[in-house]
Design a protein that fits this description.
By secondary structure, this protein is α/β, with parallel strands linked by helices. It has two domains: about 1-45; about 110-235 and about 270-425, SGNH hydrolase (Rossmann fold), CATH 3.40.50.1110. The protein is built from 14 helices and eleven strands. It has helices at about 1-60, 120-125, 135-145, 165-175, 195, 200-205, 230-235, 235-245, 250-275, 300-325, 345-355, 360-370, 380-390, 410-425; strands at about 65-70, 75, 80-85, 90-95, 115-120, 155-160, 185-190, 210-215, 215-220, 330-335, 375-380. The strands form four sheets. A five-stranded parallel beta sheet has the order 6-5-7-10-11, with helices on both faces. A two-stranded antiparallel ribbon has the order 1-2. A two-stranded antiparallel ribbon has the order 3-4. A hairpin with a 2-residue loop joins strand 8 (about 210-215) and strand 9.
Length: about 425
Amino acid sequence: MFSERVETLTAQIDDGHQASINSSTKRQTRLRRVLNRLGLIVFGVLVGAGAAEIGLRIVGFSYPQFYEIDSSLGYSLRPNIEGWYRKEGVSYVRINSDGLRDREHSKSKPADTVRVAVLGDSYSEAMHVEMDQIFWKVAEKNLQNCPNLGGKKIEVINFGVSGYGTAQEFLMLHQRVWQYSPDVVLLAVTTNNDVTDNSRALRKTNDIPYFVYTDGRLTLDDSFKETKTFQMRQSAPSRLVSWIQDHSRLIQLINSANRSFKYWMAARKARSAAPKSAETKGPMLGDEPGIENAVYQQRNDPVWNDAWRVTEGLIARMRDEATSRNARFVVVTLSQGIQVYPDPKVRQNFTDRYGISDLFYPDHQFERICERQHVPAIILAPRLLDYAERNKAYLHGFGSDIGNGHWNQLGHRIAGELIARDLCTGGVLK
């Protein structure tokens, strides 16, 4: 009786052990199946990513990060980077070995050559068009036949970087331009945002250097170097991410799509918030995302007064630096889409909507600054408007956004021709 119970218990234990083994085997089998499926998925993703990478390289797709952290300027163009730019207009962009959107230039000035250094922002960098279509390249070509050159050659070097205000342009002049020994320094002023770019309160970013008045003296505020954002971008993980992006066309494609989507969403949000036209019920023509319409009006609040004061102080500093180097300093003010919109009704609707009495108010302000500081000035916007009206031509914008945004190919050409004419006849090149 006892032995039978022992046998029964042993059998039950054996059965339980076997059941446990079977259950464990089933779990292991299911786990292997899951792992196999995951492995196949990962393999498929890797094969697909590899095929996409190869395909993008075959078709020549390249959308690199054109900018890098700069401890003096906040950011700057990355040397020897090239790729497509498609955010506004389309062009293939090459940055030279010295971090300029230009061809290679020797530091030493060739004999019998007049060198012109151009300082500016996105209008001068001009990734929206091919390099030979940019206004300074057009001016260089047209100046070759200037009789005041006395048989000398003309060489224009572009130091423009998108987003730069007068503060960063002054630092560019002070730190890099003089290495090329220019005879003329041309400051290209974007009237709608250069003033706001010179004010931390108006630009609302801590990631770039500013100049401020301290005890009546214009002094550099480079505290951006102490910000967490700046330090993070200089970290090893951030550099690793940049390296991966530089070497992966697929990552560049994803980043390109992400930037384009964000830009589209920002533009859509800005236009939905913009005043609506009574005729079309749509956004008013002339309203552009990111454009500070307040610059078209005289403002007497302390922040704006300080921004204008700093801007004038920086122009005076640039003039003094040029004079100390035996170079001539010239200011050229550019144009905004609404200022040169060929349809006068659109311009009138815009000024009525915002209570603007003079669309050329910022241009006149810069003209007065240059008069006070004894700096030659080329004021383009009124002359560009005359051309646009006479020819019913759009000088700004691309595709469906014609009339807004940056200069298109025609805008660059007309501006370059006017600049060349004024530089030649104004005696600056003698």
